[in-house]
């Protein structure tokens, strides 16, 4: 069944990564300031995008499906997660486990780094697993980022929540453009 997909273009992520970053650049130029939360998000977004780019580039260069090895991809993902946690702590954010609906607010300190590691590794690998099936990763990401955008716009306690919402909705728009050209058969 995969013979039918032979010759399908790879590196589709560029179609939604570049427009999202450009839109965020225009927002930065317009507002002339940017929140630390958005900077952290963009660095993490670009870090994981770079890992995907290297993986796809190696697949193209080697002319087979052998991109990055699982261990090297995992190490790179851990490095990006550590950078995220470092920037998060450096920006003065509190490492809180905060469940608003139950009124629970716990300072979990460096355990927060492990929570971040778990969330980033599991979500990036979930996308990586669904990638390659026409439209599956893009459509699932679309649903997730619509949800994240709505949550961000209704979260007044989060630093830069409006910018984070705009990031999510910019990514949603880019994903819609990507999906319109990635329907089966992908073209």
What does this molecule look like?
The longest helix is centred in the first third of the chain and has 27 residues, at 36-62. With 187 residues, the chain is mainly α. The model has no long low-confidence stretch (mean pLDDT 83). It contains 6 helices and 2 strands. It is globular. The two termini are 17 Å apart. The protein has a two-stranded antiparallel ribbon. The chain has helices spanning 13-31, 36-62, 70-90, 111-130, 136-153, 161-181, and strands spanning 96-99, 104-107.
Characteristic key phrases:
single chain; 187 residues; mainly alpha; two-stranded antiparallel sheet; 6 helices; 67% helix; globular
- Terminal CA distance: 17 Å
Binned, the helix content reads 55-70%
Specify the number of helices: 6
Rounded Rg: 18 Å
In what order do the strands lie side by side in the largest sheet? 1-2
Number of strands: 2
- Overall mean pLDDT stands at 83
Helix-and-strand structural type: mainly alpha
